[in-house]
Amino acid sequence: MTTERVVGGKSVRENSFDEQVAPEVVADKKVPRDTREWLARASAMGELKVLEGVDCEKGIGQITEMLHHDDDAPAVLFDGIPGYPKGFRMLVNTLSRRNRLAMTIGLDENISAAGVVDAWEQWLTEVKPLPVNTVTSGPITENIDTGDDVDLLKFPTPLWHEEDGGRYIGTAVAIVTKDPDTGVVNYGTYRAMVHDRNHTGLYISPGKHGRAHQEAWMARREPMPCVMLVGLSPLHFLGAALEIPEGVNELEWLGGVTGEPVDCIEGKLTGLPIPAGAEIALEGFVLPDEKRMEGPFGEWTGYYASKEQEQPVFRVDAVYHRNDPIMLGCPPQKPPYEGQKFQQYGRSANLRRELRAAGVPGVTAAWAHSVGGCRLFNVVAIKQQYAGHATQAGLAAISCRQGTYLGRVVVVVDEDIDVTDLHEVIWAVCTRHDPERDVQIIKRTTSGNLDPAIEPGKKGYNSRLLIDATRPWEWRDKFPAAMGPEPEEKAQVREDWGWILRGGK
């Protein structure tokens, strides 16, 4: 089915998704193996739209911003992009809805938020990584460009925000690097701006594993081997964008999560693993002696918090791509946007896991709120056991790996508060905490270049606000009784009767 509309004087077509995928793949409840299986599943769920004729200059970026800020928005596949070969496509907004996220990681599509957090924490603590399965070829080797044939400009990279300093090919990306001393491989998401046909920028925030690898190679004055996956499955984007335990290879961890090792070819130039089912991979080296101006770029805080500045350069020496390749895009927007809508589950699970691992007892729940970019506003629920318990939990939430990077506010609440419900959290703050008694400011904690509240030239440190919104320990038994259901009961009612809110569906 094709529907044609005229938008801004240009013809735009909405098509149905007609990729040839076996019916049994659509019905299969296992994790989709690649982007094309993911698209078939999303289409079968009624969660995908295909648009033709949308331009890269404004259209794709504007539509993506709209999708990110609508909770019911579908995934969108852009095809027939003016100025680019038909079949060179861009996929956006894949993981903004919980049902699509659940499908991506092999969970029931009607799972609750708490269910996703529980599953993710189990993967973080119990999954045994599986070494990658090295193969000699795969869909990613259908086209390999080297030397003068390398041309990043043939891919439809949008200008995501009007004020961006360039086109960012790296938004929903996995960047593969290796520690030069230990050989440990990292799979991370960092931004990359196109400079020309065979160079991109590479901005990695301080404290990230990829940045540590980069600094180790630069200290040796050696080029850093690098692979940038700019077309990859939503599952692999998840693995790259979320924090997993220290020292674990994300590719091997993804194999453990799915129960099947990830098939990878070895990069011809770097020897780094490249998923054989990926759509587009760029291979080359980050140069030790070259920097170029990069940015500005609208970031996940909702601001242009870092201005144009010199950043390392990634020289692309080989491009691998499938026939009719599909790029994956997830540009930052004002919170909450797509990235934060899926990050809230993984980061919340990791925060709860790290608090328990730190020895904080009675931690019943944790939530990294998307309105704070899943970093700036974190909530921890505890079952109080002794005086000072709430302060201990809050300080641990500020200090652990998940909570330390660019945090701002930590709220500690009692176990009867639904930490996922911002209204309940603020209600607890308004009714259980007294500013004179229950607020602490922790100074000189770690920040970063993207912190909009820190004056330019002084970025590096920030302070944290710790709010104890629990019933005061000394007279908790005299505190007025709260009305309404406990979080577990509330979740059960929504599971049993939530269909009423969906118009009987």
Automatic annotation (TrEMBL):
SUPFAM superfamilies listed in its UniProt record: FMN-binding split barrel (SSF50475), UbiD C-terminal domain-like (SSF143968)
One BP term from GO: cinnamic acid catabolic process
Matching Pfam families: UbiD (PF01977), UbiD_C (PF20696), UbiD_N (PF20695)
Gene Ontology molecular function, alphabetical: carboxy-lyase activity
Residue ranges of domain 3-octaprenyl-4-hydroxybenzoate carboxy-lyase-like N-terminal in the record: 44-116
Organism: Mycolicibacterium litorale
PANTHER family, sorted: 3-OCTAPRENYL-4-HYDROXYBENZOATE CARBOXY-LYASE-RELATED (PTHR30108), FERULIC ACID DECARBOXYLASE 1 (PTHR30108:SF17)
Entry-linked InterPro entries: UbiD, UbiD-like_C, UbiD-like_N, UbiD_Rift_dom
Coiled coil (UniProt feature): none
Span of domain 3-octaprenyl-4-hydroxybenzoate carboxy-lyase-like C-terminal: 345-469
GO CC annotations, alphabetized: cytoplasm
3-octaprenyl-4-hydroxybenzoate carboxy-lyase-like Rift-related domain mapped to chain residues: 136-334
Name of this chain's protein: Decarboxylase UbiD
